[in-house]
Amino acid sequence: DQQVKQNSPSLSVQEGRISILNCDYTNSMFDYFLWYKKYPAEGPTFLISISSIKDKNEDGRFTVFLNKSAKHLSLHIVPSQPGDSAVYFCAATGANSKLTFGKGITLSVRP
Amino acid sequence: EPEVTQTPSHQVTQMGQEVILRCVPISNHLYFYWYRQILGQKVEFLVSFYNNEISEKSEIFDDQFSVERPDGSNFTLKIRSTKLEDSAMYFCASSDLYNSPLHFGNGTRLTVT
């Protein structure tokens, strides 16, 4: 039961360019969406979030866009840096605060 | 910056044995969680805990699993009789407010042989 889907397993971009990571969800009860970043041998680290009442949230180089009608969100990283290379998880939650994660996407930023 | 700490980082156990995974959440946090990630799969919710009781649990969290907050700082996950398929990374997480971002520990890699 994949309520949160990250359909691309990996993405490779050149340093300085934009990285766009996509995420789709199926559960219309989700009202809060988060992106987590994970390095090997570490736990997921919170990156940025967005509430369903917004369609955009920006924090420095990171911007998350939410399209509720399409049940789609995306994370934009610009400019991408080699240190951004990690696994990125999309996650969503509703009334129960339980996070449902996507499978993750491995981002590689080439110097 | 305060962080969630988990011990041990790696636990190897034989099938049928009991294991206890330990976590120290961030001190002023009130909501506690266990998640796991089987190799190559996504991070899965196991259980949430608030006010000294389980607030929600997943289908994975069957009678073999239990959680406890034995004192004011520790939060433990016990697996009574481990199975091979319990091998995974187990992540503890905590948050200060309901529906606020979770802070994760670095995980315990459990290997059941």
Model description:
The complex is a heterodimer of chains A (111) and B (113). Chain A has strands at residues 4-5, 10-14, 19-25, 32-38, 45-51, 56-59, 62-67, 72-77, 86-93, 100-101, 105-110. Chain A is mainly beta. The N and C termini of chain A lie far apart (37 Å). Chain B has strands spanning 5-7, 10-13, 19-24, 31-37, 43-50, 53-57, 65-68, 75-79, 88-95, 103-104, 108-112. Chain B has 113 residues and is mainly β. In chain B, strands 2, 4, 5, 6, 9, 10 and 11 form a seven-stranded mixed β-sheet that branches. Chain A binds chain B through residues 32, 34, 36, 41-46, 49, 89, 93, 96-104, and chain B through 4, 6, 31, 33, 35, 41-45, 48, 55-56, 91, 93, 95, 98-99, 101-107.
Question: Topology of this protein?
Answer:
The complex is a heterodimer of chains A (111) and B (113).
Chain A: E1 4-5, E2 10-14, E3 19-25, E4 32-38, E5 45-51, E6 56-59, E7 62-67, E8 72-77, E9 86-93, E10 100-101, E11 105-110
Parallel strand pairs in A: 2-11
Antiparallel strand pairs in A: 1-3, 3-8, 4-5, 4-9, 6-7, 7-8, 9-10, 9-11
Chain B: E1 5-7, E2 10-13, E3 19-24, E4 31-37, E5 43-50, E6 53-57, E7 65-68, E8 75-79, E9 88-95, E10 103-104, E11 108-112
State which percent range the strand residues of chain B make up. Answer: over 45%
Largest interface: A-B, 21 and 25 residues
Q: Biggest β-sheet of chain B, characterized?
A: 7 strands, mixed
Number of strands of chain A: 11
**Low-pLDDT ranges of chain B:** none
Main sheet makeup of chain A: 6 strands, mixed
Question: What structural class do helix, strand and pairing data of chain B support?
Answer: mainly beta
Number of strands of chain B: 11
Which descriptor suits the 3D outline of chain A? globular
Mean pLDDT of chain A: 94
Q: What's the shape of chain B?
A: globular
Taking all residues together, what is the mean pLDDT of chain B?
A: 93
In N-to-C order, the SSE pattern of chain A is: EEEEEEEEEEE
Give helix % range of chain B. Answer: under 10%
Distance between the termini of chain A: 37 Å
Low-confidence stretches of chain A: none
Rg from Cα of chain A: 13 Å
Distance between the termini of chain B: 37 Å
* Oligomer classification: heterodimer
Query: Class by helix and strand content of chain A?
Result: mainly beta
